[in-house]
Specification:
Blueprint: E1 2-7, E2 11-17, E3 23-30, E4 42-43, H1 45-62, H2 64-68, E5 72-77, E6 83-85, E7 95-96, H3 104-113, H4 116-119, H5 130-140, H6 142-145, E8 150-152, H7 154-163, E9 167-169, H8 170-173, E10 179-180, E11 185-186, H9 188-193, E12 203-205, E13 210-213, H10 216-221, E14 228-230, E15 233-234, H11 235-242, E16 251-255, E17 259-265, E18 277-280, E19 287-293, H12 297-307, H13 311-316, E20 329-331, E21 349-351, H14 359-383, E22 391-394, H15 401-411, E23 415-418, H16 425-438, H17 442-445, E24 451-455, H18 459-473, H19 476-483
């Protein structure tokens, strides 16, 4: 038996799987985000821990025999968060999260001062990454920075609490911007640019490798024996393991709060100019590329809150895949944007509103705007040499037939909807826990699930969407000016 723990932004999720990898049970605990100033986003690590305890206690109470048979635990989590510890492993301040935008000035300065961020790190210096967050702390909270003995990512702080070990996997660590991504090791020059040294970083392991053992007191609390923890993965690499995207040429589209276009590769293939993320995968000798949209299903949730109606009801009112593009354009930059613009300051817009528009048109425009943003990611990955013949779709937005239908036509790419239960990051983490405990071949464990439905592009709609996409792409420069 195996457990996957996902340290998300909105919730802690735990899944229990059997020896064959089938889902036995799952639990979750909600989290909240603190926003002390506009553009800031923080969480208290203690909230992660209490959420993990709640999930594990619930699993152990409901399935004591299964939990007693657990031999491996995998961790996944939100990437980029800066969890700062002193020499006694005490948390120095709330964790600065992935969607925090306060370090834009520090990003510009770091890019100008150290070209290795592009050459070794393989990515633009963005406010979402961990490195500029530490530079912000060094400049604005020097008394905190002086006490920093260790910097951990969210899931790795949970590992420390579970095992007493300071370790991280390569997929998550690549998102700090301190990693030599091709060499799969810390880069001293990148750490030095933010006033840090390798000794302040956790040890590095592959995501499928053993990375500590569960503390005896916790094992007793949950009725477990000796349990190994896997290195684990950042949330998207873990999701890739959960749906079997572990070979070059495979990819997936995630429609969660943020949107991700993920492609597996057998080498380090950055596209810095296009704001593509080039990271290590969770498995040895594999890398991946990602295009990221900060507000995907989050855009629909925002509109649902604004209109006072459930998101599912709003989408159902469309009555299926639209016959033609909406006469209204929506740009989903509600929290800034990553790929391809790397612009934390830009904000979203409806363009072309008139008196005849109703909520149905607004909903269609939002779904299409997110699809256009994903098409921008698709183009950025293509510029890095990546072309995907099909994409597996995951995330809450993947439950909408209308959204998947129009998305397939915008991307002009078949979308494969998997059957069965949620195969997200926690499920992928459980697979990594299995690999760490049993030493099996990754391809035999990280299999692609059965496909429930294939959403094919509609040729006529795809042509109409290409014209609308062209108009959408002309609007960013104007939005950038007014946002500044």
């Amino acid at each position: 038996m195996y457990i996957g723990l996902d340290i998300g932004t909105s919730a802690i999720k735990a899944v229990l799987t059997d020896e064959g990898g089938a889902l036995v049970a799952q639990e979750s605990a909600a989290l909240s985000v603190s926003r002390p100033r506009p553009g800031w986003s923080e969480q208290d690590p203690e909230d992660w821990w209490q959420g993990c305890l709640a999930c594990m206690d619930a699993l152990a109470a409901a399935h004591p025999q299964a939990v007693a048979a657990v031999t491996g635990i995998g961790l996944s989590g939100q990437m980029h968060g800066a969890t700062l510890l002193d020499a006694a492993d005490r948390v120095l301040r709330p964790c600065i999260l992935w969607n925090d935008g306060r370090s834009e000035a520090e990003c510009r300065d770091l890019e100008a001062a150290e070209p290795d961020f592009h050459r070794l790190g393989g990515n633009l210096v963005m406010p979402g990454f961990t490195a500029p967050k530490l530079e912000w702390v060094r400049r604005h909270e020097p008394e905190i920075f002086a006490k920093v003995a260790k910097v951990l990512l969210p899931k790795d702080w949970v590992r420390l609490t579970l095992t007493g070990e300071s370790l991280s996997d390569l997929s998550d660590s690549a998102g700090t911007l301190w990693l030599d991504v091709a060499g799969r090791r810390w880069a001293p020059s990148l750490l030095a640019a933010t006033g840090l040294e390798t000794r302040q970083m956790p040890g590095l392991v592959e995501g499928s490798a053993p990375a500590g053992r569960l503390r005896k007191d916790l094992a007793q609390r949950w009725g477990m024996g000796s349990v190994v923890l896997a290195g684990g993965a950042g949330d998207n690499a873990a999701s890739a393991c959960g749906i079997g995207v572990v070979k070059p040429g495979q990819g997936f589209l995630s429609l969660g709060t943020s949107g991700v276009l993920f492609a597996c590769s057998d080498g380090f293939a950055p596209n810095v100019a296009g704001a593509v993320h080039a990271f290590c995968h969770a498995l040895p000798n594999r890398w991946h590329q990602m295009g990221v949209v900060l507000s995907a299903a989050g855009s629909l949730a925002w509109l649902a809150d604004l209109l006072g109606a459930p998101a599912g009801e709003l989408v159902a009112d469309l009555g299926g895949v639209p016959a033609e593009p909406a006469s209204l354009l929506f740009l989903p930059y509600l929290a800034g944007e990553r790929t391809p613009h790397n612009d934390a300051a830009v904000r979203g817009a409806f363009v072309g509103l008139d008196l005849g528009h109703d909520r149905k048109v607004l909903v269609q425009a939002v779904l299409e705007g997110v699809a256009y943003a994903m098409a921008d990611c698709q183009r950025a990955l293509a510029a890095a040499g990546t072309r995907l013949e099909s994409l597996i779709v995951v995330g809450g937005g993947a439950r909408s037939e209308a959204w998947l239908g129009l998305m397939a036509s915008v991307l002009n790419c078949p979308l494969l909807e998997p059957a069965g239960a949620d195969l997200g990051a926690a499920f992928g983490a459980a697979r990594l826990g299995r690999l760490a405990a049993g030493g099996e071949a990754p391809e035999s464990v990280c299999e692609t699930p059965p496909i429930r439905k294939v959403h094919e592009p509609d040729p006529q709609l795809a042509e109409a969407y290409q014209e609308a996409l062209g108009r959408y792409r002309t609007l960013y420069p104007a939005l950038r000016e007014v946002s500044q």
